[in-house]
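Aim 2 progress update. The chain analyzed this quarter is reproduced below.
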Amino acid sequence: MTSSSSLSASSSFPQSSTSSAVVAARKSIRLGQALTVLALVALAAHYVRAIQYTPIEATQGLAQKIFYVHVPAAWSAFLAFGILGVCSALFLWLHDRRLDLFAEASAEVGTVLTLIVLTTGPLWGKPIWGTWWQWEVRLTSTLFLFFLMVGYLTLRRSIFDPLERARYSAVVGILGAMLVPFIHLSVYMFRTIHPKPVILNPEGPTLPGSMLSTLLEGVAIMTVMYLGLVLVRYGIGRLQDEKEARHAAQG
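Predicted structure tokens:
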């Protein structure tokens, strides 16, 4: 991924020591790469466990195995957008460019994860519901969130003033984060083809123990994957930011 949201030296942001910022960025990239490799290896083992060693669900059959990809990806996407919202709100308060860069990194990773959700959902839904798509609340609001995040990323590439870009993007990021609890609660608020949550449920988890442990394993691995990718993306963003700051200072 390439950065487009770097904050130049000509903006009103306080500038950090170039050498310390570069060192911190490189450490972030190395840590993120290590976490990503670890998560990829664990993910491969997780899918072997899900397919070969986790019981087949009685009513949905083999199609239910997509559940172990779909739900962890959804969890990680919502985590990404939650962190986007927090970083965006903190940026509007503190005006720390690192918060803006981390928000952008989280938004990019979250958008990719949402695309996985929107791809695996129909693959799972077709044999179960008999249709690839229905314009029900959860599906539609998740699709809307995806397009909102595409708009967020497009906005960042359309505004050249660093401070203005960061401010406008923060507002959109907060709006995107506010959609996350609505999407989660939509199955309680509206009639929908989606089942109720199987973990974050007022009555407690509803899955059998073996399926629940496999799902939680997937959620943990995808969380590590998110952290790895966002650290890499954040580090790249900081390096690009420092490079542009140096060019602005010299020019």
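Residues 1-11 have pLDDT under 50 and may be disordered. The helical segments are 18-53, 67-94, 97-129, 137-156, 162-189, 209-250. These observations will guide the mutagenesis experiments scheduled for the next reporting period.
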